[in-house]
Amino acid sequence: IERTLVLVKPDGVRRGLTGEVLRRIEAKGYRFVALELREATADLLADHYAEHAGKPFYDALVEFMLSGPVAAMVLEGERCIEGFRSLAGATDPTVAAPGTIRGDLGRDWGGSVQQNIVHGSDSPESAAREIKIWFAALDA
Ligand code: GTP
Ligand code: MG
Record's family (predicted)? Predict the structure, then answer.
């Protein structure tokens, strides 16, 4: 059975959307293996976003992710990596499909696509890596 790392990003927590995101995950049928309100650190984010280091939006992204607490969780269920990405919708909330978390609850607030409410691991390799970063004591 697969596991994936999901974050409700600072914009989602600030806007009071944590419960709505959790509700959609539970309604979909995935199980919570871990769930915690966390403050990210610069070190943790450097690991988490290593693939984006050097990109033009990187510094703004890290600053945004440090702007408030995140709700970090590990989900479990068959094909939950793909399944949660599908629940989340496209990266850009302006054009994410209605019915998705980003499409229903997100929009452009002036930071382009940055404030898009949630993160979900994009592959089994990313999931294993990210679960280790956020929940060192857990098995991926
Ligand atoms: P995550 O699940 O958060 O990883 O989103 P994603 O996989 O759909 O997007 P990606 O990994 O490509 O980018 C990570 C995050 O960086 C996005 O979710 C956005 O918050 C932010 N981001 C991506 N591209 C841009 C961009 O062009 N400009 C800005 N400002 N932020 C971006
Ligand atoms: Mg990504």
Answer: Belongs to the NDK family.
**Nearest ligand, CA 5:** 1
Whether residue 140 is contained in a domain is answered as no
Question: CA-CA distances (angstroms) from residue 56 to 11, 22, 74?
Answer: 21, 31, 29
CATH code: domain of residue 31: 3.30.70.141
Known catalytic residue at 52: no
50 in contact with ligand 1, CB cutoff 6 A: no
pLDDT category, 111, cuts 50, 70, 90? confident
ipTM: 0.89
What residue numbers bound the domain in which 110 lies? 3-134
Task: Indicate which ligand has the atom closest to the C-alpha of 116.
Answer: 1
Per the structure, the count of domains in the chain is: 1
In this prediction the pTM is: 0.94
In a domain, 102, yes or no: yes
Q: Is 139 a member of any domain?
A: no
